[in-house]
Design brief:
Blueprint: E1 9-10, E2 13-17, H1 18-35, E3 38-43, E4 46-51, E5 65-67, E6 73-75, E7 78-79, E8 88-89
Parallel strand pairs: 2-3
Antiparallel strand pairs: 1-2, 3-4, 5-6, 7-8
């Protein structure tokens, strides 16, 4: 298993232990967006997650399709409500 030294820079990527990430989450999100820095979050020296800045103007609507069974598709362009019996169409952008 790969372990990483805390805080070591690799190009525009920084290593951050989970505890430090938790304590400084909002600041790290701002830094990622402003300086285009990526963060690898580790626990016990093992990489677990990655915080990356979004591309300017990124639009995520419709970019993910979840498959919940053989014929059951849940798409991001369909809004839903917990009490609704049928999916409601997404509002036009």
């Amino acid at each position: 298993m790969v372990t990483m030294a805390e805080g070591v820079a690799m190009d525009d990527t920084r290593i951050v232990p989970a505890g430090e990430f938790k304590a400084n989450c909002l600041q790290l999100i701002d830094q990622a967006a402003e300086s285009r820095t990526e963060y690898i979050i580790t626990k016990d020296g093992k990489p677990l997650a990655k915080l990356v800045p979004l591309d300017a103007g990124a639009h995520l609507m419709g970019s993910v399709t979840l498959i919940n069974g053989a014929n059951d598709l849940l798409r991001t362009d369909v809004s839903w409500h917990a009490r609704a019996t049928t999916p409601q169409p997404a509002a036009p952008a």
